[in-house]
Write the C-alpha coordinates for this entry.
Amino acid sequence: MARHPDSAVQPTREGDPKEGLESFPRADLSVLETAQPKLIDASLRGPVVLTRHGRDAFVILPVDQFQRLALLAEARRLPGPTVIEPG
Protein backbone atom coordinates (compact mmCIF):
# COMPACT_ATOMS: atom_id res chain seq x y z
CA MET A 1 0.00 0.00 0.00
CA ALA A 2 1.42 3.38 -1.03
CA ARG A 3 2.09 5.88 1.73
CA HIS A 4 0.32 9.23 1.44
CA PRO A 5 2.69 12.25 1.73
CA ASP A 6 0.63 13.62 4.62
CA SER A 7 0.73 10.37 6.60
CA ALA A 8 2.12 10.49 10.13
CA VAL A 9 5.87 10.08 10.51
CA GLN A 10 6.66 6.43 11.16
CA PRO A 11 9.00 5.23 13.92
CA THR A 12 12.60 4.45 13.12
CA ARG A 13 12.98 1.39 10.95
CA GLU A 14 14.92 -1.59 12.22
CA GLY A 15 18.40 -1.87 10.84
CA ASP A 16 21.54 0.18 11.11
CA PRO A 17 20.70 3.89 11.65
CA LYS A 18 23.50 6.38 12.19
CA GLU A 19 24.84 6.47 15.75
CA GLY A 20 22.82 8.82 17.94
CA LEU A 21 19.79 8.71 15.61
CA GLU A 22 18.45 5.31 16.64
CA SER A 23 15.25 6.50 18.35
CA PHE A 24 14.29 9.37 16.05
CA PRO A 25 11.39 9.02 13.60
CA ARG A 26 12.09 9.11 9.87
CA ALA A 27 10.40 11.16 7.17
CA ASP A 28 11.05 11.10 3.43
CA LEU A 29 12.62 14.35 2.28
CA SER A 30 11.42 14.14 -1.33
CA VAL A 31 8.19 16.13 -0.77
CA LEU A 32 10.06 18.95 0.98
CA GLU A 33 12.85 18.87 -1.59
CA THR A 34 10.32 19.24 -4.41
CA ALA A 35 8.64 22.19 -2.68
CA GLN A 36 11.77 23.90 -1.31
CA PRO A 37 14.89 22.81 -3.21
CA LYS A 38 16.95 25.84 -2.10
CA LEU A 39 16.22 25.06 1.54
CA ILE A 40 17.50 21.52 1.14
CA ASP A 41 20.58 22.69 -0.79
CA ALA A 42 21.38 25.20 1.96
CA SER A 43 20.89 22.63 4.73
CA LEU A 44 23.31 20.24 3.03
CA ARG A 45 26.00 22.93 3.35
CA GLY A 46 25.36 23.60 7.04
CA PRO A 47 22.80 24.47 9.71
CA VAL A 48 19.68 26.40 8.66
CA VAL A 49 17.47 28.20 11.20
CA LEU A 50 13.76 28.03 10.41
CA THR A 51 11.54 30.75 11.81
CA ARG A 52 7.87 30.67 12.70
CA HIS A 53 5.89 33.85 13.29
CA GLY A 54 9.16 35.80 13.11
CA ARG A 55 10.89 33.78 15.83
CA ASP A 56 13.58 31.11 15.62
CA ALA A 57 11.82 27.77 15.86
CA PHE A 58 13.93 24.93 14.43
CA VAL A 59 17.44 24.17 13.22
CA ILE A 60 18.06 21.80 10.34
CA LEU A 61 21.48 20.14 10.65
CA PRO A 62 23.30 17.74 8.37
CA VAL A 63 23.67 14.34 10.09
CA ASP A 64 27.45 14.61 10.54
CA GLN A 65 27.11 17.98 12.29
CA PHE A 66 24.31 16.63 14.50
CA GLN A 67 26.53 13.71 15.53
CA ARG A 68 29.41 16.05 16.43
CA LEU A 69 27.04 18.21 18.48
CA ALA A 70 25.62 15.15 20.25
CA LEU A 71 29.12 13.92 21.12
CA LEU A 72 30.03 17.32 22.58
CA ALA A 73 26.84 17.37 24.65
CA GLU A 74 27.45 13.81 25.86
CA ALA A 75 30.98 14.69 26.98
CA ARG A 76 29.63 17.57 29.09
CA ARG A 77 26.75 15.64 30.67
CA LEU A 78 26.99 15.13 34.40
CA PRO A 79 27.23 11.51 35.58
CA GLY A 80 24.07 9.99 37.00
CA PRO A 81 20.51 11.26 37.02
CA THR A 82 19.70 14.78 38.13
CA VAL A 83 18.14 14.77 41.60
CA ILE A 84 16.34 17.79 43.00
CA GLU A 85 16.27 17.72 46.78
CA PRO A 86 13.15 19.11 48.47
CA GLY A 87 13.97 22.49 49.98
